[in-house]
Specification:
The structure holds two protein chains of two kinds. By secondary structure, chain A is an alpha/beta fold. Chain A is built from eleven helices and 14 strands. Helices cover 33% and strands 28% of the residues of chain A. The chains are: A alpha/beta, B mainly alpha.
């Protein structure tokens, strides 16, 4: 399958912060949504910075639409929509002024589409952005990111300021966006339930290291948590254990194939696992 | 470029509006009162003030994530820098227009406001060159040191701009004898030097901005 975005062995060191982004590799196929999950400071925004060239990578390769993007490649950036967490635009602007600026920058800027999004999202056109609520500023940023007909959306915590109802509406917008086979979304988020709803793939990152990329179907249908007693845990085949975490009265063990685990270890309780729980096990758990 | 210039205009607009009103009212006063020092001061303040305002407003882009967001837009970093250089010159032109209108009105109502009519050329040359030198120093410093230090960099740039202009004038005074031709030649040298510095500052600023991470 062809990829709209490909990261190969991306490394970036911040010596003052004592942080290393270590050989991050993943790819996003056309027509898919990839959820990018990790705790605060895991390296999600730095990775996105390396993709968008706002941060200079030390080594590795980022391919967008099959090509490494340089500063000169404005044609590639025409096809990308970006939403950052928080205030994307100056507070002294109005939505109307934002449209005027974007119109002078994007060759494909669609003023009518932007107006439609403003209406759909109930955003006042003439009000200054600084008077918007946090949710409204995020909706405005999403509207702006969609209004130049991009093929790739890169969303860094784009749903974090929205209430559950509005988040659900935004997720519908994202799902509608990827109905086109040439469209894809990279969605970094702390709200893992959002990713469970829309993502086709989920990439876990922890402490600057890529832990794994897994398809959501695999996650839902295959991954599971075994709730083991100490003695049961000791009897497990180490090859079956991805990671484990000791709790007060049990040990939670993440396995890649729940059905197989249930067959193999009949007396152990095997539960379905949420993205949240996987993240906790990957971040806080121990490896064999 | 059109969008970037519009962005720069919106960044400066609120401050520029206040400054314009202030300079308009001050202009009425300066026209009404016959005072040579006041007219000289007004002319210089207009030409330097509007461009100072444009420079001081640049940091406003970094209150939000717009400074970072701009890098994801389909524009080259060099184009972003170029837009700031152009905006600087546009605001200098606005200041020069203000100065020109007030000096012309004063001249029309009260006669030549200076000892010699050619002195008006010196005022404009001084104001324009200080403003351009200031911009030439400020832009690379802004991107090098970051927006949080922009105020002090602007002050340093202004002082350096004035110092360089005074330095050039001092050197010229050593070699040129006073006269109309000298004033015209000095004015031309000041403006050419400042424009040269401005032109050299552009690739330096682009180079610094290219390595900047957000």
């Amino acid at each position: 399958m062809e990829n709209i975005l490909e990261l190969q062995q991306i490394c970036k060191t911040f010596p003052k912060l004592d942080f290393i982004l270590d050989k991050i590799s993943f790819s996003l196929p056309y027509g898919a949504i990839l959820g990018f999950v990790g705790e605060n400071g895991a390296g999600k925004t730095t990775t996105i910075g390396c993709i968008l060239n706002t941060v200079r990578k030390d080594s590795g390769m980022v391919k967008l639409f099959g090509k490494e993007m340089q500063d000169i490649d404005t044609d590639i950036r025409e096809k990308i929509g970006v939403v950052y967490d928080g205030d994307n635009f100056p507070g002294y602007w109005t939505a109307e002024q934002l449209s005027q600026v974007m119109e002078g920058i994007y060759t494909q800027w669609d003023h009518a589409l932007f107006q439609k999004y403003l209406e759909d999202f109930h955003l006042p056109v003439k009000q200054k952005i600084k008077n918007y609520s946090r949710g409204m500023t995020m909706k405005l940023a999403i509207a702006a990111a969609l209004s130049h007909h991009p093929q790739l959306l890169i969303l860094d915590e784009a749903t974090s300021g929205l209430d559950p109802v509005m988040r659900d509406e935004m997720l519908d917008v994202f799902l509608e966006f990827v109905q086109e086979e040439s469209h894809s979304i990279l969605l970094s988020s702390h709200i893992t339930s959002d990713l469970e709803k829309v993502a086709d793939y989920i990439t876990f990152i922890h402490n600057g290291k890529l832990i794994m990329t897994v398809s959501k179907n695999d996650l839902v249908y295959h991954y599971a948590v075994m709730r083991c007693k100490e003695s049961q845990f000791l009897a497990l085949d180490p090859d079956d254990i991805i990671t484990y975490r000791k709790r007060d009265y049990q040990i939670d063990v993440l396995v890649a194939d729940g059905k197989e685990a249930q067959r193999k270890y009949k007396d152990v309780v095997v539960d379905h696992v949420s993205v949240d729980e996987i993240m906790l096990l990957l971040v806080k758990g121990e490896r064999v | 470029m059109k969008g970037l210039l519009k962005n720069n205009f919106l960044t400066v607009y609120a401050n520029a509006k206040v400054f314009s009103i202030f300079m308009f009212l001050l202009g009425i006063f300066v026209v009404a009162v016959v005072s040579q020092p006041l007219l000289i001061g007004y002319g210089l303040l207009c030409m330097v003030g509007f461009s100072v305002n444009a420079s001081v407003s640049m940091k406003k882009e970094f209150v939000s994530k717009w400074g970072k967001y701009k890098l994801t837009l389909p524009v080259k970093r060099a184009a972003i820098v170029k837009s700031h250089f152009i905006s600087h010159l546009i605001w200098l032109l606005v200041g020069a227009l203000y100065a020109g209108i007030v000096i012309s009105l004063s001249w029309a109502l009260h006669g030549c406001p200076y000892d010699n009519s050619i002195d008006v050329v010196s005022i404009f040359a001084l104001g324009i060159s200080v403003s351009i030198f200031m911009g030439a120093f400020f832009f690379p410093l802004f991107y090098l040191g970051g927006e949080e230090r922009s105020d002090i960099f602007l002050l340093i740039s202004l002082v350096c701009g004035i110092a360089v202009v005074l330095g050039i004038i001092s050197v010229l005074n050593l070699y040129l004898t006073p006269g109309v031709i000298t004033i015209l030649v000095s004015a031309a040298i000041l403006i050419v030097c400042s424009l040269l510095m401005f032109a050299l500052s552009y690739p330096l600023t682009v180079g610094i901005y290219h390595n900047k991470e957000y």
